[in-house]
Amino acid sequence: MILAVIIIYLVAMLLIGFYASSKVKDDKDYLMGGFNFGIIPMTGTYLATFFSALSLLGGVGLIYRSGIGGSWMPMAWALGSAFGPILAIRFRRIQIVSPSEFFYHRYGSQKLQFFGALASIVYLLFNMVIQVTAMGVVWNLATGRSFSEGLLI
Length: 153
Fold this sequence. Notes:
Blueprint: H1 2-21, H2 27-32, H3 39-50, H4 53-66, H5 72-94, H6 99-107, H7 110-143, H8 147-152
């Protein structure tokens, strides 16, 4: 039963993705929805990103292993949550999609843009590893099938 629900969910996500891809005109339309989203979808996107496997597994695991020294991650998220709306408004006003693009727009430095992009890539690689690991764990717990099979899906 659980496997059928997971398969139906995956098929539904693929169908929605194919339908939505027919509406995309350029990269900013894909990345930012053409800057047409209101506050409710943007808030939902932020919350989905924040309450991901990174915060639920990575943050908790870091604090467990590191003690109080690992609390920098939730503090950084709290600080980002406080300043995030200010940056989002500024990014939307000048229609940019990434912090590295902001660095180039604000300071005119391709080197600063490169290092901003590099920092984002490093963060996103760690984030991706945790997300894929969490998918394997959820797959294993929900279906009783192997963790490795969940990683491949």
